[in-house]
Design a protein that fits this description.
Layout (H helix, E strand, L loop, with lengths): L1 H37 L5 E6 L3 E5 L3 E11 L4 E11 L4 E10 L5 E8 L5 E16 L10 E12 L2 H39 L2 E2 L11 H9 L8 H49 L3 E2 L1 H22 L2 E2 H8 L2 H6 L10 E2 L31 E5 L2 E4 L7 E4 L10 H5 L3 H9 L3 E7 L17 E6 L2 E5 L4 E5 L5 H19 L4 E6 L1 H13 L4 E7 L8 H11 L2 H7 L4 H6 L8 E7 L1 E3 L2 E3 L5 H4 L6 E5 L9 H4 L7 H11 L1
Helix pairs in contact: 2-3, 2-4, 3-4, 4-5, 4-6, 10-11, 12-13
Length: 640
């Protein structure tokens, strides 16, 4: 009996003990996950693609696969919405809702077809918007997170279009030369016809309607898609061939009339020579009278020939006279009489055709330029403004993913996207250059999130990328060069606009000290500790953030800060800072004192506000444009 009671108490004891361990384990896990969340490890969504660039010819297609995955604690998931946008008109090609859990990524493939003529680029964007969800053990701020990937589809003429381009250019040049030849021939024939018309009544039809044809060819050649205009060119060729046939008939007619006219002049000139030769000899009286008769007849013919009359009548008068006198034989008589008779001198000129060289061909073909259409606005891809690059600030924790550092710009970037600065996602040292130069060259400005928290080192066969957030600010400033070079490589723009938040502003200033500011148009600092941090903030920085080197450099009394502020502030640097929070050493934004944020420049812009609590300082709220819209208004005014 006693044994039975003892056994029952033992079982109860074990049960209670197990319950206590489970409770402790549960609460411990709960506490660990909460601390993990508070240290910055919120639910993070990552988006990647197997390729971000396609080159297609007209009629081709290419496939791209997107993948989304989540990093979070095991008790959280992410409810996501994905959209594939065509930036040409901002239309949604595809949309989907899905749930993401760690280790269970979402994948989707799309086929891109190219149906456009010419050369240019199409831009698409893969947008993922997620919110974390879960039960009691899921700790998250439940804020929306956004990820964006810009896809470029560059297109060009296909093989058939390239061949058509060559055919059009060759044929149009030949037709232009043909037209020039026809016009020169017409000029020659008109000149001959005018000369002939001064003496003979002739009527020719010169209405060939060539005036518009050279312009039509030029207009077709100046269209960017001229290689698709072969049919209109063939129609023009047909019309020009008909003109050539008509010109051939006209040429035969005028040439025949000129030949007749010139042959009549030859007969008259030869007849004059024969008659004048007779006046040099003595003939019998009968012969002299006969010759005088011929001279009178010749003078009459010349008088008639000088009169403007139909060519047929001129032929009637002249024809046969030369044969008549050439066939008549006179015997010279030394005792005879000299022919004393005046012979009309022939001053008429034969008609000669001008020998004109064909005009030079003056035909220009339109340059087939790269064109882009974004939000229903079409222009040259190279016409866009400077890209805007966002630089994040000090990371809350060393172990927080990179995406968490970039997340603060989401609302600001989204608002800029609405105002025409196309969201191109993010770029880091991890972003490879395995795309063509100017892949992001587009007729609209881009906004790009950038991070200096990546580095790489060379292995025997490749490069290994590592996330490093424990370097000094000089290291970050040097890393920025690689990032900015990549932005310039991708966009084709030599000037960049920068919006740098908090420590990112200090990193940016140091970068300009090291490499110069010529490559930047506008540099906007937001909440930057320009003269360092001090007091409690300086003390807690390495404890909360875990980044000792960064914090040491940002200390107001550090050597780094002395070097940073020894130079003149560049004219293209603009400084936005917050004030209104009571801090132990004065007013500021809860993290940076006003006197430490302000710079010796006219380009200072103060944002007055309040701190909502120890963990919600104005410093972080500067990025929340719904709380402080004047921040965005100041930024857009500077950019524009």
């Amino acid at each position: 009996m006693f044994l039975k009671r003892l056994m029952k108490k033992k079982v109860l004891f074990i049960f209670v003990l197990a319950a206590v361990f489970l409770t402790i384990g549960f609460l411990g896990a709960k506490f660990y996950l909460l601390i993990n969340f508070l240290s910055g490890n919120d639910t993070v969504v990552k988006v990647s693609t197997n390729k971000e660039y396609l080159f297609l010819e007209h009629g081709d297609a290419g496939d791209i696969t997107f993948e989304s995955k989540v990093t979070t604690n095991p008790f959280c998931s992410a409810s996501c919405n994905v959209k594939l946008l065509n930036l040409e008109d901002m239309s949604v090609i595809d949309a989907d809702d899905f749930s993401l859990k760690p280790g269970n990524p979402f994948k989707k493939s799309y086929r891109f077809f190219l149906n456009k003529f010419g050369r240019g680029k199409e831009f698409y964007r893969f947008d993922v918007e997620c919110i974390s969800s879960g039960g009691f053990l899921c700790h998250s701020d439940r804020e929306l997170t956004n990820r964006n990937l810009l896809i470029t589809v560059e297109y060009d003429l296909n093989e058939a279009e390239e061949e058509n381009k060559k055919i059009f250019e060759e044929k149009s040049r030949n037709l232009a030369e043909e037209i020039n030849g026809i016009e020169n021939e017409l000029f020659t024939l008109k000149d001959a016809a005018n000369k002939l018309n001064n003496s003979a009544i002739v009527d020719y039809d010169f209405e060939f309607n060539l005036n518009d044809k050279p312009e039509k060819i030029k207009m077709l050649a100046m269209e960017e898609n001229y290689y698709t205009k072969i049919d209109p060119l063939l129609e023009l060729e047909k019309e020009i061939n008909e003109t050539r046939k008509d010109l051939f008939d006209l040429n035969n007619t005028i040439s025949g009339d000129v030949l007749i006219y010139n042959s009549l002049i030859d007969d008259l000139l030869q007849s004059e020579i024969i008659l004048r030769n007779w006046t040099n000899f003595n003939f019998s009286l009968d012969s002299v009278e006969k010759i005088k008769g011929y001279i009178d007849e010749f003078n009459t013919i010349m008088k008639k020939f000088d009169e403007r009359d139909y060519l047929e009548n001129k032929f009637f008068f002249v024809n046969g006279f030369r044969d008549k006198i050439e066939n008549y034989v006179f015997k010279e008589d030394e005792n005879g009489t000299i022919v004393d008779k005046t012979i009309e001198k022939t001053n008429i000129q034969k008609i000669e055709f001008l020998n004109l060289a064909p005009d030079e061909v003056e035909l220009k073909f339109a340059e087939i330029k790269n064109k882009c259409t974004v939000n229903n606005v079409t222009g040259l891809c190279s016409d866009g403004k400077n890209p805007v690059v966002f630089l994040h600030g000090h990371s809350v924790t060393k172990d927080a993913p990179l995406e968490y550092s970039l997340e603060g710009f989401t609302k600001l970037q989204k608002k800029l996207d609405e105002d025409g600065y196309v969201n191109a996602g993010s770029i880091t040292l991890y972003t490879e250059k395995n795309v063509p130069a100017n892949v992001w060259e587009v007729n609209t400005p881009l906004s790009i999130k950038a991070s200096y928290y990546f580095d790489f080192f060379e292995e025997p066969e490749n490069y290994k990328i590592v996330l490093t957030k424990s370097e000094n600010i000089d290291t970050y400033a040097v890393r920025l060069k690689e990032i900015f070079d990549n932005v310039r490589f991708r966009t084709g723009k030599q000037k960049i606009d920068v919006i740098a938040f908090s420590m990112g502003g200090v990193v940016m200033r140091r970068h300009m000290q090291l490499f110069g500011g010529d490559g930047f148009s506008k540099v906007i600092l937001l909440g930057a500790p320009n003269k360092g941090i001090s007091g409690d903030v300086s003390t807690l920085c390495p404890i909360v953030g875990g980044e000792k080197r960064e914090c040491e450099d940002m200390n107001a009394n550090s050597l780094f800060m002395q070097k940073l502020n020894r130079d003149k502030i560049p004219d293209n640097l603009y400084n936005i800072y917050g004030t209104g929070c009571e801090m132990s050493e004065g007013k500021g934004d809860g993290i940076v004192l006003e006197e430490s944020a302000k710079l010796e420049t006219e380009n200072n812009f103060a944002i007055n506000g309040t701190c909502r609590g120890k963990f919600q300082p104005l410093h972080l709220d500067l990025l929340k444009i719904e709380l402080y819209p004047e921040v965005y208004e100041t930024i857009i005014n500077i950019l524009e």
